[in-house]
Amino acid sequence: MIALLVRDLKLSFRAGGGFGLGLAFFLIVTVLVPFGVGPQSELLSRIAPGILWLGALLACLLSLDRILALDWEDGSLDLLATSPLPLEGAVSVKALAHWVTTGLPLTLASPLFALLLSLPPAGYPWLVISLLLGTPALSVIGTFGAALTVGVKRGGLLMSLLVLPLYVPTLIFGAELARRGAEGQATLTPLLMLAGISFGVIALLPFASALVLRVNLR
Amino acid sequence: MTLSVHDLTITRGGIPVLEGLNFALTPGKALILRGPNGVGKTTLLRTVAGLQPPMVGRVDSETESIAYAAHSDGLKAMLTVTENLRFWSDIFENKDISRALKDFDLIELQDRLAGTLSAGQKRRLGLARLLVTGRPIWILDEPTVSLDVASVALFADAVRAHLAEGGSALIATHIDLGLEADVFDVGPFRASGKSPDPGGFDEEFL
After folding, report:
1. Per-residue model confidence as pLDDT tens digits over B107-123
2. How confident is the model at residue B206 (pLDDT cuts 50, 70, 90)?
């Protein structure tokens, strides 16, 4: 499993691997929003948590089709399915690799981008906590979407449509946690809900992903 | 480590393509599958490898004894030859890749990116993967595509060495590999009946 993780990370850092795509997209969103809504820092700081979460979610969505489609095209998915590695483990590792190359850099860079949107100072730790808790769920749910559409040529549109409704709860509670943190309100409820969603999907969805992948490999 | 197939009916796109297949593969033996294009050789190999379930019948083999090599080699263009092989040897928990490099004449290429190899060199790398799996039953789908005469000889030697060590191989191929192997023509087993549930969907054309 470690071998698969190392390979996926190596591939994403090498030429054409797509590392940084999500980060660049996140940067574009946060830089352009102030131009779009105008330079009212009060308004910006009010909508900042939502914008940052939306940007992170869309940046994740952008790279989802790479998780399994490349391995499908060059045949390594067939070979992995006949290897000693359980498919449940393989999809979990792939989701982890996606998170390390997308969710983690987004989380680490988010304070910088929050500055551009003049997020209130109290909101910074909560923004990072909410992204740290929420982005793994985005990667795991995304891997499920990628597994569902793996055999479909140019399945990006279909996958986005399938994945978006599944992303809604994570977005609601993640943005709510960051907003409440920024406004100094009680954060326990959204924190627990977000953690529940994340740990729930991490525990359950790999089994569903492996199941649909087996069906798609037939 | 015997692989046996009992009364197998296989389907492609929901339509039976071959039916009533019975054969066994014993250690030290190779079995060559023959048949015209589209008869269902790949489907048969995928079914035996466990990638898809048979419609009728069963495939008996020990779990985790099969190494499958498909049309595509599963290589990553941005990894070197060594990295590609090392990845598969780690997945199959087999530490030694030097023999695979040597047997398929890849030592001089070992630091090249797989994306810069020629089609035949890629194929050799894909076949070298079989050696690092350490599995006794090889299931090979057109293994000699894009190989030159010398490489085919290398491959035949590797198969012979594998058989001598008690392994076995099920090979779909159109050319003569020069192996002492039984030939199994799947042509007569073409499924006669139509799909059990015809119409409705365009699977007729798949």
Report:
1. 888 888 888 988 888 99
2. very low
Dist. CA A185–CA B189, nearest whole Å: 72
For residues B23 and B30, give the distance between their C-alpha atoms in angstroms, rounded to a whole number. 12
The first and second tokens of residue B82, run together, are 């060594």
Number of domains comprising chain A: 1
ipTM over 0.90: no
Q: Domain containing A89: what range?
A: 2-217
Task: Give me the residue from A4, A78, A218 closest to B68, CB to CB.
Answer: A78
Q: Which residues of B touch A81 (CB under 8 A)?
A: 51
CA-nearest residue to B138 within chain A is A82
Cα R_g (chain B), whole angstroms: 18
Of B114, B97, B119, residue with least CA distance to A3: B97
Looking at the partner chain, which of B79, B93, B133 has a beta carbon nearest the beta carbon of A10?
B79
CATH of segment(s) B1-65+136-192: 3.40.50.300
DSSP state of A101: I
Q: Count Cα atoms within 13 angstroms, Cβ side, for A1.
A: 12
Residues paired with B6 in a beta bridge: B58
How close is the nearest chain A Cα to the Cα of B56, in Å?
Answer: 16
The residue-averaged pLDDT of B65-71 equals: 87
Instruction: Render pLDDT for A123-135 as a digit per residue (tens, 0 to 9).
Output: 999 999 999 999 9
User: Which among A197, A155, A150 is positioned nearest to A176, based on CA atoms?
Assistant: A197
Select the more confidently predicted residue: A207 or B26: A207
Q: How far apart are CA A47 and CA B40, in angstroms?
A: 59
